[in-house]
Amino acid sequence: QVQLVESGGGLVQAGGSLRLSCAASGRTFSNYAMGWFRQAPGKEREFVATISRRGGTTNYADSVKGRFTISRDNAKNTLYLQMNSLKPEDTAVYFCAAREGLTTYTNAYDYDYWGQGTQVTVSS
Fold first, then answer.
1. Is residue 45 within 8 Å of residue 39, measured between CB atoms?
2. Which DSSP symbol is given to 57?
């Protein structure tokens, strides 16, 4: 079992930045590929970014490419999402997710463990 707790969300103006964190516990963090997803009101959960278990491979949704950066610190059992140049359409609840595996995964159904989410609101 892996427990995930997100933090770092909040209210920010368009063009601003936020860094989300996801603290993991319970199992060996470096065995897990990780992902960030988001869900806006009335919309389905969508893929944002994913990173391989050692951090060597990343993948991003086209909507965030060049603005968001996913990273991890396996010594601290923590996943990050640096979000720059935020837009109002980035407003959503952001979730981190984990699954054992050797690569990256962009489909929510591929993940076994989820955090409770952190709200990000970008004002125009």
1. yes
2. -
If you average pLDDT over every residue of the chain, what do you get?
97
Q: Which of 33, 12, 18 is CA-nearest to residue 88?
A: 12
Pairing of strands 92-100, 113-114: antiparallel
Instruction: Give pLDDT tens digits for 18-70.
Output: 999 999 998 899 999 999 999 999 999 999 999 999 999 999 999 999 999 99
Nearest to 99 by CA among 51, 55, 46: 51
Neighbours of 51 (CB within 10 A): 25
Residues 27 and 1 sit within 8 Å (Cβ to Cβ): yes
Token pair of 14, please?
Answer: 């368009």
